[in-house]
Amino acid sequence: MVRISALWWRNQNHASESEQTLSIGARLKAERLRLGLSQTYFAQIAGASKSAQISWEKDESSPTAKALVSFREVGADIPFILFGERRSGQSAEVDSHYAAKVHELKDQVVNPGKYMADDALSQAASFHIVQRAADALGRIATSTDPLISDQTKALADDILRIHCNDAAAAERRSARYAAVVADRNRAEHDLRDALGGVGLKIGPDLNQALLTLIVDYRIDAREILGLLQALKLELKANADAA
Which pTM does this prediction carry? Predict the structure, then answer.
């Protein structure tokens, strides 16, 4: 199913030849390295083992939809992993910078002692480091820069909410969650219509992946319909050839 989806997406978005030749596992590894994360940490994000991560990167198995959603939350470019199609260069570069900065700031909040001078007064210096990092996270979370993704802003808010007890971050998270629920409800309605239009039944994993495309990447119902039609035609061709 994923292979067929990738072919359709590439035809629609004209991915470069070099991107098309990379496997899903290779692109997953490339995103992990771009974010500066280890295999162990990346696997933990997805609730998986390091051996599973290695298997995914070697194309011995495929990451689940749940794992991909988890990777997205730390700044991974999911359309690139699945389809070899990156966001615009400037957008990806800027967001990648801020995503890495958020992880660095989280470390300062959680482990301020690593960033103190040897002769610093521990309590005062620690408070200053945490406060400075929290202020920087707040600026990222509330930025109006369109090149910073919602996922990066949400991650900054989650760090503030969990580690700094920031009430404003909690309110932003609640508002963001309500918007996500509303978007998901619309996406589920659109997906049901699209499925009915082509008379195709799909499993829960593919259903989740398609909902992610609709909600997170604003793929409209007509494009989903085209994807499902391509899937149906490919399945029929495979059945006829068998």
Answer: 0.51
